[in-house]
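Dear colleague,

Following up on Tuesday's group meeting, I ran the structure prediction for the two-component complex that the binding team flagged. I've pasted the input sequences exactly as they went in, so you can double-check that nothing got truncated or mislabelled along the way. The structure tokens for the whole assembly follow below. Feel free to forward this to whoever is handling the docking comparison.

Inputs:
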Amino acid sequence: MTGQDASSESNSVSSAPIDFDRLDLIRDRFATDERFTQIVDQPEFASERLVCVYDTRFYPSSVQNARVEIVWFENGDFSLHYYENHVEGTFDHRWDRHPSDHNARDHIHPGPDAPTPGDDSSHPSDWRDVLSMALAEIEARQRAFWDG
Amino acid sequence: MEEPRSELQADAEERTTSPDFDALTSPEELVRGERTRDDFFDAVLGLSNPATASEVADLAGHGVDAAREYLEWFEQMGIVKQVTESPATYERNQSYLNWRRVQMLQDEYSTAEILELLKAEAARVDDLAEEFDVASPEAVSISKHASATDQSIEDVWVAVSAWKTARRRVDLLERALATESGDAADQRTAV
């Protein structure tokens, strides 16, 4: 057992407070990135989630807005939730690491509407790799709006 | 992730102004800081169990000698604490990070604002505590509570996490208030 955010504790049912410090760091790194027009964290003195709003120029007019919401806990658990609002309907995708009775600790709720139960998965052990994996998958979907 | 349905895709006219994805900072770079120090700080921030210098070196993507130097420096600053001697293992020093946030609260908010935040968070703690018939979130067995109350483990986990988070906020805000009024009290009633 190393100290990293390993998923090897997948069967334990534990919880921890939100990791305000990790969310601060992510906010600082994302704040000046061209992908996002806005990073909202409330309450700002100790964030419970970062709402990262994507610039609409990455989407055709069929998508009204899109965002990824980031929640991280001190024990390494997380929930990354990507949302799109369309003229008619929505699209969701969620990458999770937390206890549940329907899935392994690491799992995915694929769109549309992020159903329960989701699919078991194995996310990277390093939190930065988890985050870049999610952003890369979102970018792949954004690119697919323009391929044709 | 699924590809967008065809009716959502850009039409021919929109495609003439397709965004330039290749000009963006890559996700791998975006999530990381620019300096070696950031790599080590990120590594120790992700530690939820004691780790050796070589494990920290792996997480940071740098050599073990650098890891030892940074761990020593971080320990002096209070960012990590040493847990065992040989092999030496370290973990994130949450008390230091909490202390730093108390300082930040005092710098950025007035006493009146901190008091308002505290009232709101204390009310949240009370609301969440009502859901569970125990003194603290640590005493909740998530799986037992889920089956006893016919809820999903996920729902109980969300509530217990929210309870722990609200209690952490109350603790930070109370400390920010206590230190502020404490400074004044020290001057008046120093014994």
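The two ends of chain B are 65 Å apart (CA to CA).

Cheers,
M.
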